[in-house]
Amino acid sequence: MQDPTQRPDPDALLQRLHAEEAQARRGRLKVFFGACAGVGKTFAMLSAARAAQVQDTPVTIGVVETHGRSDTEALTAHLPRLPLRALPYKDRTLPEFDLDAALAWGAANPEGLVLLDELAHSNVAGSRHPKRWQDAEELLAAGIDVWSTMNVQHLESLNDIVSGITGISVWETVPDQFFDAADEVVVVDLPPDELLERLKAGKVYLPQQAERAAANFFRKGNLLALRELALRRTADRVDDEMRAYRRASTTTAEAVWPNREALLACVGTGDNAEKVVRSCARLAAQLDLPWHAVHVETPEQQGRSTTLHPQVERTLKLVQQLGAVACTVLPAAQPAQALVRYAREHNLVRVVMGRSAHRWPWQTTLADQVGHLASDLDLLQVGTLPARAGLARPSTSNASPETTNKGAAFWPGYLAAGLACCLAAVVATPLADVLELTNIVMLFLLVVVGVALRFGRGPAVMAAILGVAFFDLFFVPPRFTFAVSDAQYLVTFAVMLVVALVVGQLTAGLKVQAEAATEREHRVRSLYDMARDLSAALLPEQVAEIGARFMTGEFNAGSTLVVADDDNRLQVLPGGTAPVDMAVAQWAFERGEPAGRGTDTLHSSPTLVLPLKAPMRIRGVLVVAMPHGQVPGVEPRRLLQTCASLLAISLERIHYIDVAQKSTVQIESERLRNSLLSAISHDLRTPLASLVGLAESLAMVQPPLPSEQQALAGSIRQSAQRMSALVNNLLDMARLEAGAVQLHKAWQPLEEVVGSALAACTPALAAHRVDVQLPDDLPLVQIDTVLTERVLVNLLENAAKYTPPGTPINLAAQAQSDAVAITVSDEGPGLPKGREELLFEKFERGARESATPGVGLGLAICRAIAQAHGGSIRGDTILNPLGQAAGARFTLLLPRGTPPTDLGDDVRPHPVDV
């Protein structure tokens, strides 16, 4: 018959099936992993992609950084590329990976493969995701295979280690869980000496960059350390894959595969437990091995108290301090079977345990039981501590009142067992002539079962012995003496005693297991109720109330929720019942570690502070005040951590709901405003045109109007023209934002565009002198002449409106490496401090209330036109030597391309034979 403990877990099987279904829908991620730049990751990826292309796999380059290496660039010649997306960044335009184009390509090529170099790259502001690995995640979720590259210093968990080795901080990182989720990792390795030779030969960086790299990052010691980190991290990943394969390929634990050494420390309840843990930690440190610690909680221990043994509590805390990989408490009736099962599930080769003492000859030690069950495990036994008087450890506050009360109430169970046996004898005495002796035996067995259910094993054993004695004394002839007339009654006594002991033991064990199961069910039910309530919470205050209700019901403890705002400032939510020490709360929030009562940090605090770790960030802290200043044990601490995680996830969900609602309102408001602007501008254009025409007609009537009426007609015409310009701005802004404007680009000299803009602004610039500085070697630019002229007109008119009459206005242009910069500057009051970027928003003006005409659309139109050209525009204030504002300066950047070559007279017609 199969051992029930070895049967497959149906929940685990179902979870594995769901995981396999989800994995089948996702694309496959392959990472080419190296110690540092220059080892050949991109070259290896492109070579593998070429081989896949030969096998008819659709392959495209999403983005590949060749860094000018000719051999790497040659591999891209026969691979198709997706066009990059141009995004404005500060004063230039940068090419970036086009995620939407990759998704469209993947939809058209179901078995396609996208090459995405430099997984840790930070995307340009304005991209859908801030990190390239998030782009890869979206491609994988869409079922598209992705190949990428990364270095070991970009792993989040190793970032600080690499920084300490090299002295250089790397800000672009990839989460370890994303790296571990990769379907395949290919290590691209190169010896340090060979890598340094490649660096000197200019195959890694350009000569100037190579000199700096060799003097800083690319030192041989650094390269050796990085190489070791990369190989060790890959070995860890392979070890995880091996253990996952063993779990997935079998329903029961097989023999341990000693491919990698690991230790398991067995934590008992004796004084020797701490020595076992320390010995295991020292051995693991000497051999540089990972180690686990496990305590098996038997039904007897669960029945004595709902908390762990004080010695076990101390030992498990010591385990955490010594840096064990895992610290686990396993409920099981057979400790040896539980230890073997845990060792095989985690592939732990060596088991470290204490040496058992004071055993009867017929009893087997735990080490013997483990050795019998698993001969493939290495057993290391630690010697016991010598008994020394006066060194008993004082009792700690970890012992719960329940444990103390149960210890104090030790004797009532045995007293009740004796009274129950006496009562059974009294009840059965009048029935001795009516009932057979076998039925009287059943009465005493019933007493044993009742005592076992109510008081446990010890009183049940006493009831079994007393039951046999009373049965012999009062009911077996000769009565009222322990003498036996018939030897067959000796067999009856023996069988009765054995049956009573077995029944009592089984009943007490089932009672303990039922109580433990009830306790676990109660905790799971409490967590479920809390999670259900949190799923319906819409405000942080509701989350705090639900958390406080859980703490009161489960621990009889007070709690207070302290959340962080968008600026990472902690704020105490109302309704809390625990005192908050903001210094302790700030420390726990900044470092993401528990602090306060029961921890190694600020342990004098009366409260325990737990960080609220959500998937994206730490959302605040949970302050817990345990009753009577108790220190929560290992199991209560785990329950508190689970509660804190649920609260953090709920707070993050509420935050993103608020963000989504604000974004929706903002989008709808923007859409409504654009529709309103478009409608108003269209309805006003015709009346305004008629008004301008009528005003001009009044000036030309015959006979001429009197001078006063002519001045009035001129004022009407000027006001109507200003109103018409405003309506045109509104309409242009609506059309630009709707994407309805088509650019008619052509290669034009800037001199012509500047001249047209100055001519159009002649009336507005009548009171100013315009200094134009255009170098003779300005290149041609590919622009829409009309829209670019509109930008210059708006900038010049702004300069004329906001500067005193008689001050000069400067217009200059300069060619840069990747753009042409056009600057319009004046000697006015400058731009409002801190609002330089806001001026480019719609309906934003330098002064809220001003007599200067306008509604704040000119600069918004300038930015929209500049971005439509792939350029940018910015404004700043000119400062004089004293640091005072001396004018404003606006800089328009237009991308510089390669104009067509005019061959002119060099073109010769081909001769034609006649």
What ranges have pLDDT less than 50 throughout 5 or more consecutive residues?
1-5, 388-409, 903-914
* Shape call: elongated
Number of discrete helical segments:
27
Q: Reading side by side through the largest sheet, how are the strands ordered?
A: 2-5-6-1-7
Distance N to C terminus: 105 Å
Task: Give a verbal description of the structure.
- By secondary structure, this protein is of the alpha/beta class.
- It is built from 27 helices and 24 strands.
- β16 (608-613) and β17 form a beta hairpin.
- α11 packs parallel to α13.
- It is elongated and about 155 Å long.
Summarize the structure.
49% of the residues lie in helices and 15% in strands. The protein is built from 27 helices and 24 strands. The chain starts with 9 loop residues before the first helix and ends in a 19-residue tail after the last strand.
Short descriptors:
five-stranded parallel sheet, 27 helices, 15% strand, alpha/beta, single chain, 914 residues
Task: Break the fold down into its secondary structure elements and pairings.
Layout: H1 10-25, E1 29-34, H2 41-54, E2 59-63, H3 70-75, E3 85-89, E4 92-96, H4 99-108, E5 113-116, H5 132-141, E6 145-151, H6 159-166, H7 176-180, E7 184-187, H8 192-200, H9 207-215, H10 220-249, E8 263-266, H11 273-287, E9 291-297, H12 299-304, H13 310-322, E10 326-331, H14 335-345, E11 350-354, H15 366-373, E12 378-382, H16 401-408, H17 411-428, H18 437-455, H19 457-474, H20 488-535, H21 540-555, E13 558-564, E14 570-572, H22 582-591, E15 595-596, E16 608-613, E17 618-625, H23 634-699, H24 707-738, E18 745-748, H25 750-760, E19 770-773, E20 781-784, H26 785-801, E21 809-815, E22 819-825, H27 858-868, E23 872-879, E24 885-895
Parallel strand pairs: 1-6, 1-7, 2-5, 5-6, 8-9, 8-11, 9-10, 11-12, 19-21
Antiparallel strand pairs: 3-4, 13-14, 13-17, 15-16, 16-17, 18-20, 21-22, 22-24, 23-24
Helix pairs in contact: 11-13, 14-15, 17-18, 17-19, 18-19, 18-20, 19-20, 20-21, 20-23, 21-23, 23-24, 24-27, 25-26, 26-27
